Amino acid sequence: MNVPDPRLDLVDEIMAAWRVELPELAGVPFELSKRISRLARLIETATAAELDRLGLTNGEFEVLARLRSAGPPYRRKPNDLTKALLLSSGGTTHVLHRLTEAGLVTREADPDDRRSSWVRATPAGVEKAEAALLAANSAYRAIFGALPDETGRVLTDTLRDLARGPHIAYQR
Q: Tell me, what is an example of a GO biological process annotation in this record (predicted)?
């Protein structure tokens, strides 16, 4: 009887098929891309479930989280939000409009620059941001909780180095 190896997963099956069908494709870069993509989908799915429960889209969550991370008075320039969240200016405007309608953010004129404004999280926005951040973190812990801290730190540092490498065409 052929018993499957419990250490193997879907990516191992994909890689085994490519080793037969197109061996030059079945190297470490391809496998890493598949594993990172799979993890990204797991994280997105888990996060989306928590955000849906709280009535937030991912874009709304990211804006609120970015405002909350600014500390009091929980405000940032719209252009800073657009850059940090990798949204288009139209996308940012759309998200800010929904958050404003929900009473989670306000737009304020910048007294030092009449052409500019601030986006500020309301007290309800700060509360919603904290609830969403804690819920998302709980989802992340469910995914990564069994990972030893030392291994997690090595992975974090390695992924940072990879994302900052000179071979990456788009960098922040």
A: response to stress
